[in-house]
Design a protein that fits this description.
Length: 264
């Protein structure tokens, strides 16, 4: 993708987001959060693609995917007053529907369109689909990594600064109180991806965030986890307990091992 096409996508995205302003001229706080999230994800996707030595064209495609990956969130909230996919629609599919309807990629080539489609439709699945083409796979993995990197920090900011009352949708309506689900902890110990259906409390949500490091793919992603002290910040949200320390230490060890591979 060339820079002109990328800039056109960014201009369209900002106009589209603006169309969801309320009578007061402002976005709903949750939509404002998603707007900022999308731009940060695009920045991380671009920078990590550069770190990986991708071509300028592929770097631009990676940034475009970051911009567009959650565009379905706007109409999802407008229509259903929720951003819980379980209680409305798959926001990735809605994102692609919006992109097609609005002809956002009319200036992109067929190969770029296919990569963007695969990346957007695959960014929120519990794991990367086995039927993703080799051509699209790097972009699917990159957006999944970039998305998680921002959600890590966003989640920590909301919980640590007591903003959950402003953004209750971020935990999809799970109970605020409750101990960790033992079955969920067992899956995390086994480094398996746990579905959101296993989240029974805010405590579970905090644990599952740390488990996401096992689903990261690229060395620059692990470097950013260490640089941003992601595991330490997420651990700080949990009351001290043997389970919290165990899960955090396992996550740190995994990140450190993956980071060493790049150094070697």
């Amino acid at each position: 993708m060339n820079k002109k096409t990328l800039n056109g996508i960014l201009r369209w995205f900002n106009r589209y987001a603006d169309s969801f302003h309320g009578p007061d001229g402002k976005l709903h706080p949750l939509l404002q959060l998603k707007l900022a999230h999308s731009l940060r994800v695009a920045e991380d996707a671009r920078d990590m693609a550069r770190d990986l030595g991708w071509s300028d064209e592929d770097v631009n495609t990676a940034e475009a995917i970051g911009i567009l990956h959650d565009v379905g969130r706007f109409s999802q909230y407008a229509e259903f007053k929720t951003q819980s996919d379980r209680h409305s629609i798959d926001h990735a599919k809605r994102s692609w529907e919006v992109i097609e309807r609005e002809k956002v990629l009319s200036e992109a080539g067929p190969a770029e369109v296919r990569r963007i489609q695969d990346a957007i439709l695959g960014h929120n699945r519990i794991e990367v689909s086995a039927d993703v083409s080799e051509d699209s796979l790097p972009f699917v993995r990159l957006i999944r990594d970039a998305d998680k990197l921002d959600i890590f920090m966003l989640f920590h900011d909301v919980i640590a600064n007591d903003k959950l009352g402003e953004h209750p949708e971020l935990i999809f309506g799970v109970p605020m109180e409750g101990t960790a689900n033992p079955e969920l902890l067992d899956m995390i110990r086994a480094q398996r991806n746990a579905p959101f259906s296993m989240i029974k409390s805010l405590t579970d949500f905090k644990f599952i965030q740390m488990s996401w490091v096992y689903d990261l793919h690229y060395p620059p992603s692990f470097e950013r986890v260490e640089q941003r002290n992601v595991i330490g910040k997420l651990e700080s949200l949990l009351p001290p307990s043997p389970e919290a320390r165990e899960v955090a230490d396992l996550a740190r060890g995994h990140v450190a091992r993956r980071g060493r591979r790049r150094a070697e």
